[in-house]
Amino acid sequence: MKSSYINSHVILALCIMYLGVWCFGEPDYNDVAPMEEVEKTALYSAIQGFVGHWWNGSDLYPDPCGWTPIQGVSCDLFDGLWYVTALSIGPIQDNSLDCAPNVEFRPQLFELKHLKSLNFFKCFVSPHKHPVTIPGKNWEKLAGNLETLEFRSNAGLIGKVPTSFGSLIRLQSLVLLENGLVGELPTNVGNLTKLKRLVLAANWFYGRIPDNFGGLNELLILDLSRNLLSGSLPLTFGGLTSLLKLDLSNNQLEGNLPTVMGYLKNLTLLDLRKNRFSGGLTKSLQEMYSLEEMALSDNPIGGDLQGLEWHSLQNLVVLDLSNMGLAGEIPESITELKRLRFLGLSGNKLTGNLSPKLATLPCVSALYLNGNNLTGELKFSEWFYGKMGRRFGAWNNPNLCYPAGLMPTGHAPYGVKPCQQEVTSLEANTNSKLGEGNFDQNSHFMVSSGFSINIIDGFRWVFLVQVFMMIQLFNCFLESNL
Ligand SMILES: *[C@@H]1O[C@H](CO)[C@@H](O)[C@H](O)[C@H]1NC(C)=O
Ligand SMILES: *[C@@H]1O[C@H](CO)[C@@H](O)[C@H](O)[C@H]1NC(C)=O
Ligand SMILES: *[C@@H]1O[C@H](CO)[C@@H](O)[C@H](O)[C@H]1NC(C)=O
Ligand SMILES: *[C@@H]1O[C@H](CO)[C@@H](O)[C@H](O)[C@H]1NC(C)=O
């Protein structure tokens, strides 16, 4: 009686502990997932190296591929035996394996020959107290199966990328993001022709981009941003024909934008911001038909906007060409980019009048033209200024003005002065009104545009603006889905 009472409690406890296991009775502890002893020991030792000596795998997880699964460890069955196929270390989930302050790579890691995926997240985090380098040797032991290798946000991971990464010929994803890695980009990585994703962003890599990176013709994502890379873009980049996203922003790259860029027909994101590119906007940019985001800002590129046939970039949603030393006028053909939401042209040397058609871009929600030398009268509707607020940037164009007489003062373009002629008439108008009473700017607008001054009208106005904006967004949604 008593023993069965205790027994049922044990079973209940086990059921609660291993909710994943369907509990029809006492589990059979001998029915463990069969594993080679060397595989099991290698797993325990490798993990212990990362999480610390206190962690006793054989005690805590006697059946790591069976009824005592380890968070971050996945297994698969090969010829009747279980092997570890994925290992993730670091605080991804609440009960993940966290790294110890004195974290170390153990050679046993490389005995896990069936590993397909190896991930480290916020594991090596003390660049000063306990810096760690990636082991230089043994990676070839994982070459047979490893498809994914990722080190993310490990500030304490320093030193160079081992050349033996070049042996991981099955690799499809190599992510070395936000670590403390240094040196030139490893040319051997250019040998990994199965790569679909190569992310080496936010480290301290310097020097040129290796020519052989252009041979990675299955690559979908290439992100080398936030490093210290210099030199010009390799002409081999034309070979990256599968590429969807190219981010080289925040480096010190220089030279012309090569015409081979035009070969990247499937590219949706081109981000070259904050580099030292020059030589004008190459005409072949217009051949990147799939582009949705083109961000080239903060480069001394120079030249003008006239050379490109903008209508061929029909998919553009974001076009950021600010701080590029662009001169000349803004071509009206830019208004054919019907999906455009963001247009940044600030901080250039653009001149001439602004086409009122810019306001007809159906999706536009931010339009920055500030810091140029645009001239003449702004001819957008007051509704447009109201809708955009400060996301319509036209300030710092000394020779630009808006026709104040026609304008409700509440919806004037921010930082733009009223045109001279109207200024005098407005002043006259205001002065005469000031004698009659104490109008603030809003009530002045209400009066002069025939509204009665009451709160309800104010609310109704706001409501109308909101309805207009919703209709606008809806139209935009329809158009971009046609
Ligand atoms: C784990 O604990 C067992 C005893 O419970 C001990 O025999 C074994 O040596 C320990 N393993 C490690 C790696 O500390
Ligand atoms: C990578 O390819 C180069 C030739 O492009 C070759 O010399 C080198 O040995 C290769 N490296 C590896 C690790 O296979
Ligand atoms: C580009 O994308 C299209 C459609 O998704 C696809 O059929 C084509 O194979 C891609 N081109 C390359 C070179 O990957
Ligand atoms: C701006 O353009 C005007 C002519 O429209 C010119 O006189 C002036 O020098 C230009 N200013 C700058 C800073 O380029």
UniProtKB/TrEMBL annotation:
Domain of life: Eukaryota
Cited InterPro entries: Leu-rich_rpt, LRR_dom_sf
A UniProt-annotated Pfam family: LRR_1
A single cellular component GO annotation: plasma membrane
SUPFAM superfamilies per UniProt: L domain-like
Membrane topology: Single-pass type I membrane protein
Signal peptide: 1-23
GO-annotated biological processes: response to other organism
UniProt keyword annotations, A-Z: Cell membrane, Glycoprotein, Leucine-rich repeat, Membrane, Receptor, Repeat, Signal, Transmembrane, Transmembrane helix
Protein name: Piriformospora indica-insensitive protein 2
Organism: Dovyalis caffra
Organismal lineage: Eukaryota, Viridiplantae, Streptophyta, Embryophyta, Tracheophyta
